[in-house]
Amino acid sequence: MVSPQARPATRAGGALRRRLVARGCALALLAAVPGLHAQADDARPWLDTTRSFEDRAAALVAQMTLEEKAAQMQNDSPAIERLGLPAYDWWNEALHGVARAGVATVFPQAIGMAASFDIPLMDQVANTISDEARAKHHEFLRRGEHGRYQGLTMWSPNINIFRDPRWGRGQETYGEDPYLSGRMGVSFVRGLQGNDPTYRKLDATAKHFAVHSGPEADRHTFDVHPSRRDLWETYLPAFETLVKEGDVNAVMGAYNRVYGESASGSKELLQDILRQQWGFKGYVMSDCWAIVDIWKNHKIVETPEEAAALAVKNGTELNCGSTYAEHLPVAVRKGLITEAELDESLTRLMTARMELGMFDPPQKVRWAQIPYSVNNAPEHDALSRKMAQASMVLLKNDGVLPLSRDIRRIAVVGPTADDTMALLGNYYGTPSDPVTVLRGIREALPQAQVVYARGADLVEGRDDPAAAPLIEPQYLRPEPGATERGLRGEYFRNKDLSGEPVLVRVDAQIGFRWDRGSPTDNLMARGEAGPGQAVPNDGFSIRWTGQLLPPVTGRYRIETAANDGFRLYLDGKLVLDHWEDAERMRADSVALDLEAGRAYALKLEYYEDERDASVRLAWDLPGARPTFEEAVAAARDAEVVVFVGGLTGDVEGEEMTVNYPGFAGGDRTDIRLPATQQKLLEALHATGTPVVMVLTAGSALGVDWAKANLPAILLAWYPGQRGGNAVADVLFGHYNPAGRLPVTFYKADEKLPAFDDYDMAGRTYRYFTGEPLFPFGHGLSYTGFAYSGLALDRSRAGATDAVEVSVKVRNSGTRAGDEVVQLYLHPLQPARTRALKELRGFQRVHLQPGEERTVRFTVVPEKDLRIYDEAAAAYAVDPGRYEVQVGASSADIRARGTLTVTD
Q1: How far is the C-alpha of 540 from the C-alpha of 865, rounded, in Å?
Q2: Which CATH number fits domain 785-901: 3.40.50.12780, 1.20.1250.20, 2.60.40.10, 1.10.10.60?
Q3: Active site residue ranges
Q4: Which of 79, 98, 456, 588 could pair with 676 in a Cys bridge, judged by C-beta atoms 3.0 to 4.6 Å apart?
Q5: Domain 381-466+626-756 belongs to what topology?
Q6: Each residue of 70-84: pLDDT tens digit?
Q7: What H or E segment, with its residue span, contains residue 564?
Q8: pTM value?
Q9: For the segment 162-206, what is each residue's pLDDT rounded down to a tens digit?
């Protein structure tokens, strides 16, 4: 940050300035010496706050060399010391909380927040995330850090349409419906970008533009040719909404091709549609290494310089990767693109940074005043629990729920009951105190005997890294005689543990997941590392040493799980070795006979090559891991069984390299519950004890058997750091559930269209003609709601006329609760083939028993009934009769009216 106040610079100030610039962080810290650049205001007009951001940005760009300009157009933009420009990395994530930057509040995964159907609550969550992001950013600046996951440009939200339940990244989206995705997306963008007339709080990024929803394995080579109807009616509307109504400032292109063009270099998408038709004023960035795909995988051009030139000319200003920095200067010299075209793109990027206040005194920027103490504050933790409660979808209830709070013995069984990963999904921060479902139930029933048995692994063939608990601090000692507990950690800036460590400290437990970030991200967030102790994002290593103190004598299973290489020694003997045969994720264990009272010398070595980084050291004490049979026995002796299973982000997610039965590369090949879990579930049911199913997942599961045989099913999604409390709140009646499905649940044997077919026919509630297992919008309550008095203020309307729809909703039960009132439009006399029905309004309302409220919606035909006319290459509204449907789901319509649209 730089202060423009005019005072003569002192000699000491000049020396300080030179030292700070040499560190590449002048703009962050020069505000401490206000006069340092006052004399340079005329020479540095980009610091003149009386000028427009655009003029200031252009003035700064004009001072750069060609090579400097190209380097500033990549995500990890280097410092330019002679201009006082610090390094800046555009890469940051905030999908459901500030991600990969240490401790932060973790909210439910995006698909879960969409299930809340609650715009005001989403506003609160997004505003909270942006508060934490701003606070973290300025704390990093105070420490002189300008790295990845430390900036103000957030690569969220993901508003791709979740068209197929097999897509592993569908969990990141707001579901299958364009309208719901648009409304939730606008709320999220509004909360991230703020409401200041001068400075944006953060930059939100609408991604991945466009027509992107798997398969993950083919995303770098796939060329999709959707019908023009599907493009404009399904794949583009949410993006248009975020651009026109949300004023989103950034858009990220996708990896795949669309109609033969790379989505990250498409003239049609980025120039013709985004800028010319929609009037987008922000900047476009590529997905990471998508520019490489243009020449290497899509083979649209032959060389990287041609790919770089093509992408910039067609509208992609920022490259996540290094293609621009390395090859744009070559492209200019070859005449493939002009330097003036680079200037235009880079000016847009620098304007964005200006608008975020990066070049202005912090006292002028409202958002810079947010204190670091907001990070993971108690009220944020409470909000995470509130959103988790709101996201819970009660799929089935035969009356067993809510469970009695007087239960004396309850069995909690299943592979995700005590798994922190079941709370997180993907793209998450580090929760300070995550509450699993098991813990949540125990806290809700302190007087009861809660018996836990895992009973089965998540999927077949997976030696589950979460199967064993971390070795707790009391069983670890950094050196003989030490009173401090844990292991001594030595952190190195290389992969081979060579040289002097840049940081030495005691780690209480070995259970880290840095996810594409460096350990420093977490250490700095906790105040344990300074600028001189930086560990890189990739290519680092750690050695932990100390003593292991077994509490009892017997046979232990000691487990290590890590991304990339690790080796474990006990008493000098190498017992686990995956240093040379490292994989993206590997878990291995060894069974050892250990004696209580002895201290065993322990050493764990780990290195991270690239991308995701994680390592854990865990164990099973003798007899501590319940078998399948023990889980069934626990169920037999209980009053009720809570089975907690489904999926985690370890098996569904983004472009994974591990495959298991039913999973391929992060996607799914089978929508059923994994066979290991289904076998356990059926055995639990056979005991005769009532079984309540709690599902953790980021996508739809074909749980037909459970629907037919179990009395209750609760869908928890990946519910965030307080997810376990929220599940218990619903199970025991402290909270009345009201979440709704943002996706269709299909039957297990439903023949779905080919995964790589982007035709919408037969997909989602809008085009699916079969009977779903659970329909879009479905969700039960512990109370009932009655609808009456549907009225339209006009029965005939022209295309531009606004029609007010009102309906009375009454809580007909005995408990207070929320109802999600949904409005759909259904064509009665369609002039051409179109969606069966479409969501065009929803409101979540809270009603006391017996309370009645009138809920109102506005329908405008040109907006809500438009279809794409391929012959005219434009939207159109067909005259005719349409049914206005209002109800509790897409299949549970409680009131109907008719609207005639005239020419």
Answers
A1: 55
A2: 2.60.40.10
A3: 287, 652
A4: 456
A5: Rossmann fold (3.40.50)
A6: 999 999 999 999 999
A7: strand 554-570
A8: 0.88
A9: 999 999 999 999 999 999 999 999 999 999 999 999 999 999 999
